[in-house]
Structures are given as structure tokens and as C-alpha cells.
Amino acid sequence: MGLASGLASALFLFGLERVTRTRETTVLWLPWLLPLAGLALGWVKQRSGAPAARGTALVLEAAGDGAPVPARLGLFALLGTWWTHLFGGSAGREGAAVQLGGVLADALALRSPRLRAHRSDLVLCGIAAGFGSVFGTPLAGALFALEVVAPGRLVWTRAPACLWAAVVADAVARAVGTTHSVYPRVEPVDLSPHALLGWLALALAVALTVRAFLFAAHGVSALLERTVRLPMLRPFVGGGAVVALWLLAQSSDYFGLGVPGILRAASTAEVPPFAFAWKLAFTACTVGSGFLGGEVTPLFFIGAHLGHTLAGPLGLPVVAASVVALAALFGAAARSPLALAVMAFELSGPEVLPYALAVGLIATWLCGRQRLYQGQLP
């Protein structure tokens, strides 16, 4: 699973880099066609059937001994995510990576009598390998797989296999030329009472932002279901909303992954104070209307800018606050704060770990039972 998922992630990231470069440097007018791209995607989703359109939820259910994952889901996720990013949809990349790993794992398990009894374990390894290799964070990938399927009920006996698969997948992806963004190291942080209150306030802000994002994304989806009878037209409407937001914001920074914006926010450079709100709106319209890709990297953008904006008023170091909020926001949304705290450690060093863990756990608790992925066990 490590070998297969590593190669799949490398192929996916190679294509994603190419379509992003095409949109940003070669064919600058592609975002204008986002509504038509959504119409085409909606037509394909309608023809492919509901199972292939459920994506990550199917993989999470398979890891809990649910129904088999359709083989076409992997190709659908790969091409659909490239398509979304080519035209500027604000989406992530973890959805495709997790689905590719899950499809490969399920196909292997169901075709081998010796492995069929270990199907759920193998799918869990596929999730770990896909997530770990697409971000270059194998420790977080292994923990994410354990945590995201059944939040709060980690089965540690599965950890060695997940870790092995994620480490191999990351090594394979790097060996064939995959590179990852380099995040700044977090320096030692002050532990004064004022700083502790600042971290607590940041956790509250993260939780409120998660609730706002989930409300917006689910609200867009529910609104389109009520008002647009043909499912294939919903991405068309969502694409039009993203284009309208683009004209209002007068910036292309909120298209696609937004990695350059994340790296700016995780530094001392100046960023727009409401960039996190713009990205939240772009992403809610994109994923809420049915475009493919996932939510992780856009939520990283939102969290990093939220932390950067609040660092000054809360008296916190800018880089530390940005990296902590980056990890805690997705951790709370996906109910996987432990994995994201470890990811912050892998990206920015050991100094950030206790703050990312504390803020992530508090924000997750404040978010209650709200969740990003519908396939998670309760």
C-alpha cells in the first residue's frame, strides 16, 4: 500500500502542479470558465452515479467494514480534482489522495482471499499512505487515519501498519521527484499568563471559524438542493458564485490551493486582515456546490490567515499563531486534533507541538459534534 499510494500521490501532485501553473501563468482567463467547468463536472457526476460522487465518505465507511469502494472513484477523484483546480475552484488535495489510497487498498483486499479478512486495516493503511505522502507528513498521515475514521476511539494496534504504509508512501513519492512546501520553524514561545489567555482566545476564534465554515459549506449545499432541481446544474451555480466573489475581492489569491498565501501568512509578511473570510467564502461555494478536491489546504489558508490577523491583538508570536491556527482549524473541523498537532510538529518543529495540541483539542471540544466528513463513525 505504501508503494502504490506513494506512486499515486506523486502522479496526482505532478498533474496538480501542471494545471495550477497553466491557470496562473499561461491561460489567465480560465477562471471565467469555472461555471461551465462546473456544468461539465456535474454532468459527469450525474452519469457516474451517486456512489462515485460520495468520495471520501465511502472510503471512511470502508475502513469501518462498510460497502466496497467503486474502482472508478479513484480516477474520478484524480481527474475531477485536476479539473477543479485548472479553472480556479477553491479546493484542497487530501480528498483525492485519501480516495486514491482507499480505492487501491479496497481493490487489493477484495481480490486476495488472504487479505480479505484484513480489509478494514488495509483501507486504513491506504488512508494513512495517501494523506501522509500528499503532504510529506507520514507521522500525521498515520495518526490521521486512526483518528478520522472513529474520533475519540483510537485503535493503537493498527498504528504500526498505518505508520509503515505512510512512511513508505512518503519515501516513494519523494524518490520519484515529489517536493513539498517548506514551512518556517517556530521559535520557543513565551508562557506568561497573558500568553496563555491569548492561546485560549485563539482556540475560541478557531472554533467559531470552523462553525462558520461548516455552516456556510453545508448551507450552500442545502440551498442548492432546494433551489436547483437538476444536480448537474449545482456546480454551474457554485462556479458562478466563485466568479462573482473573485470580482468583489479583486484578487486571484483565493483560487486553488492558496499555498503561496499560506506561506506568506506563516511569516511576518503583511497580509490582508480579512483574507481568511474571503477564502472561507470561496471554498464554501466551491465544495458546497459539488466541485472535487477536499478542504484541507483551503482550511490551512483560512487558519494561517486567522492566526496571523489575531496574533497582534492577542499578543502572540505571528509565526507560531499562524501555524497553530492552521493545524487547529482543520483538526477541529475533521475531529482529528492529535493528527494535526503532529503535522504542525512535522512542518514547523517541536516548539509548536504543545500549543497546536492544546488549541486543537480546545477548539474541537468547542465545536461539539459538528464534523466535516460524513463517513466518520459517531
Summarize the topology:
Layout: H1 2-26, H2 34-48, H3 50-54, H4 56-63, H5 72-86, H6 94-110, H7 113-116, H8 119-135, H9 138-149, H10 159-175, H11 193-227, H12 234-249, H13 259-265, H14 275-288, H15 296-314, H16 318-333, H17 337-348, H18 353-366
Characterization of the model:
With 378 residues, the protein is an all-alpha fold. The chain has two domains: 174 residues, no CATH class; 174 residues, Clc chloride channel, CATH 1.10.3080. The longest helix is centred in the middle third of the chain and has 35 residues. It is globular.
Average of pLDDT: 89
Number of domains: 2
Order of helices and strands: HHHHHHHHHHHHHHHHHH
Number of helices: 18
**Radius of gyration based on Cα positions:** 19 Å
- The shape, in one word, is globular
Number of E-state strands: 0
How far is it from the N-terminal to the C-terminal residue, by CA?
27 Å
Uncertain regions spanning at least 5 consecutive residues: none
Query: Helical proportion?
Result: over 70%
Structural class per helix/strand content? mainly alpha
Tell me the major beta sheet: none
Approximately how much beta-strand content do the residues carry? under 5%
